């Protein structure tokens, strides 16, 4: 029984000590909705519509974000912004 308690304690301690996953955030600063594509590092791809002024958290942890004419490669805790229909990296949070 003590062995099970010890193992459970190790699992809980490891989970608590693990750093939080970093995730990219997307902000549409335009006054119009925009459609963007997110190409994830594992090969998945998704196209989403981002409303005017909308902010979406946790779109990926490592991906390429594409608009009509621009794209950016992002990782970690970066923020991607949409301005005038173009995507760019806004900075770190």
Written description of the protein model:
The chain is an alpha+beta fold and 93 residues long. The chain has a single domain, classed as Domain of unknown function DUF5300 (Immunoglobulin-like). The protein has one helix and eight strands, in the order H-E-E-E-E-E-E-E-E. The strands form two sheets. It has a four-stranded mixed sheet, with no helix packed on it. It has a four-stranded antiparallel sheet with strand order 3-2-5-6, with no helix packed on it.
List keywords for this structure.
8 strands; 93 residues; 51% strand; 4-stranded antiparallel β-sheet; 4-stranded mixed β-sheet; 1 helix; Immunoglobulin-like; alpha+beta
CATH fold-level label:
Immunoglobulin-like
Helix content range: 10-25%
Specify the oligomeric state.
single chain
Number of domains: 1
Beta strands, count = 8
Provide the structure class.
alpha+beta
Number of helices: 1
**Would you identify the CATH H-level superfamily?**
Domain of unknown function DUF5300
Order of helices and strands: HEEEEEEEE
Radius of gyration: 18 Å
Span between N and C termini?
A: 45 Å
Tell the overall outline: globular
Q: Proportion of β residues?
A: over 45%
| Spans where pLDDT lies below 50 across 5 or more residues | 10-19
Give the CATH class.
Mainly Beta
CATH architecture: Sandwich
- What characterizes the major β-sheet? 4 strands, mixed
How would the blueprint of this fold be written?
Elements: H1 2-17, E1 24-28, E2 34-40, E3 45-50, E4 55-60, E5 62-66, E6 71-75, E7 78-83, E8 86-92
Parallel strand pairs: 1-7
Antiparallel strand pairs: 1-4, 2-3, 2-5, 5-6, 7-8
């Amino acid at each position: 029984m003590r062995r099970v308690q010890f193992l459970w304690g190790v699992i809980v301690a490891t989970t608590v000590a693990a750093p939080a996953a970093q995730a990219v955030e997307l902000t549409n600063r335009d006054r119009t909705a925009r459609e963007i594509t997110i190409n994830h590092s594992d090969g998945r791809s998704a196209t989403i519509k981002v409303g005017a002024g909308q902010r979406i958290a946790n779109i990926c942890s490592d991906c390429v974000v594409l608009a009509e004419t621009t794209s950016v490669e992002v990782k970690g805790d970066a923020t991607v912004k949409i301005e005038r229909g173009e995507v760019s990296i806004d900075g770190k949070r």
